[in-house]
Design goal:
With about 400 residues, this protein is α/β, with parallel strands linked by helices. It has two domains: about 5-55 and about 305-395, Aspartate Aminotransferase, domain 1; about 60-300, Aspartate Aminotransferase, domain 2 (3-Layer(aba) Sandwich), CATH 3.40.640. The chain contains 14 helices and 15 strands. The strands form three sheets. Strands 4-10-9-8-7-5-6 form a seven-stranded mixed β-sheet, with helices on both faces.
Length: about 400
């Protein structure tokens, strides 16, 4: 079928929870996608920061193929070798002592919320349950993570939300300190707000957040669903800020495109999750953990982190050259290959025009063009993207 036929069938059978663009991808390789009509697209969205190794990376594909021929799924009633190896790999390369596996970022954040509350109840009593999060944060689409998210547009229509969440301005330590009460058990933050518009706080902010948590015996949770697994040029974004969390959540890029989520925690906290307290039928099954092992090991083995820093600097520099040409680009900011270009005009029309010219990007918070290409991107692909984008910006430039 061609793209038009696929879209007509989707309109008939798929629940319309997404405002989908008229694109039907059927093949991917590296930084490119091809649609059902054979048109090629340069992908600077990477599945929303999922395809960190590009589309169909050979090591991930080989791991999936091999594992699919041996064992796809078994119950977590049993020990899964690939899951054990992945837990060891993640823990030995982070602050954490233990891992819990699930299927998505939202589920990883659910696990973090539950663990923080259970640990606090056991250590301090049932009156401590409140979790402070940030305005403009995004933590998922389940009821708990919608309640944790600091965006009204995400929460709209789902009242009553779960009680026990408080939202304060991001990058404002004084506001956070003022929000702490006898009910507070944890602080949950993204090191960089991706959906919030690529908002990067100061290192001093996170150092102060850590001090506030330590002074008040609060758990510090970092939601690294979007920033983890090399996106910022380090394996985990918290490494940029010289601050260590107590719990961290991962998903998106962890398995090279296969669905997985993970919560990592220090030993003292992890002990609160005993048999029967939490679980996930598909979490950490042999297939996805084999893919994740291949994806993480590739990033560690092949110099991907250093390459991400180099390409991030190059892309940022090229976008700043565009900023000099187009006054409606008010700021370019980012770390590694999570980069935002803030505009004084809405960005949705730019995204639509880019699609028509074979470029995939997106817009966050209405006015921030977000660039999260595969970490394997090369200078020539960045140059190609900049040429397309410059043409579009010339077309939409206010008179």
């Amino acid at each position: 079928m061609n793209s038009k036929q696929w879209i007509e069938k989707a309109d008939k059978y798929i629940i319309k929870t997404y405002g989908r663009y008229p694109l039907v991808p059927v093949k991917g390789e590296g930084c490119y996608l091809w649609d059902a009509d054979g048109k090629r697209y340069l992908d600077f969205l990477a599945g929303v920061a999922v395809n960190n190794l590009g589309h169909c990376h050979p090591r991930v594909v080989a791991a999936l193929q091999k594992q699919a021929g041996e064992l796809i799924h078994c119950s977590n009633f049993y020990h899964i070798p690939q899951q054990i190896e992945l837990a060891e790999l993640l823990c030995t390369h982070s602050f954490a002592d233990r891992a819990f596996f699930c299927n998505s970022g939202a589920e990883a954040n659910e696990a973090a919320i539950k663990l923080a509350r259970k640990y606090s109840r056991e250590k301090f009593g049932p009156e401590r349950f409140e979790i402070i999060t940030a305005i403009s944060s995004f933590h998922g689409r389940t009821m708990a993570t919608v309640s944790a998210t600091g965006q009204e547009k995400v929460q709209r229509f789902f009242d009553p939300l779960l009680h026990g969440f408080k939202h304060v301005p991001f990058n404002d330590a004084d506001a956070l300190r003022s929000a702490v009460s006898p009910l507070t058990c944890a602080v949950m933050l993204e090191p960089i707000q991706g959906e919030g518009g690529v908002v990067i706080p100061s290192a001093e902010y996170f150092r102060e957040v850590r001090r506030i948590c330590d002074e008040n015996n609060l758990i510090l949770i970092f939601d690294e669903v979007q920033t983890g697994i090399g996106r910022t040029g380090k394996l985990f974004a918290y490494e940029h800020f010289d601050v260590t969390p107590d719990i961290m959540t991962l998903a998106k890029a962890l398995a090279g495109g296969a669905p997985i989520g993970t919560m990592l925690a220090r030993e003292e906290l992890a002990e609160s999750f005993g048999p029967g307290t939490h679980g996930s039928t598909f979490g950490g099954n042999p297939l996805v953990t084999a893919a994740a092992l291949a994806a993480v090991q590739t990033i560690l083995d092949e110099g991907i982190l250093a390459h991400t820093v180099k390409m991030g600097d190059y892309l940022t520099g090229q976008l700043k050259i565009l900023q000099e040409k187009f006054a409606f680009i008010t700021e370019v900011r980012g770390i590694g290959l999570i980069i935002g270009a803030e505009l004084s005009i809405p960005g949705s029309e730019i995204v639509k025009k880019a699609l028509g010219k074979g470029l995939l990007i997106n817009v966050a918070q209405d006015r921030v063009l977000r660039f999260v290409p595969p970490l394997i991107v090369q200078e020539q692909e960045i140059d190609e993207m900049i040429r397309i984008l410059e043409t579009i910006l010339s077309e939409v430039q206010p008179a």
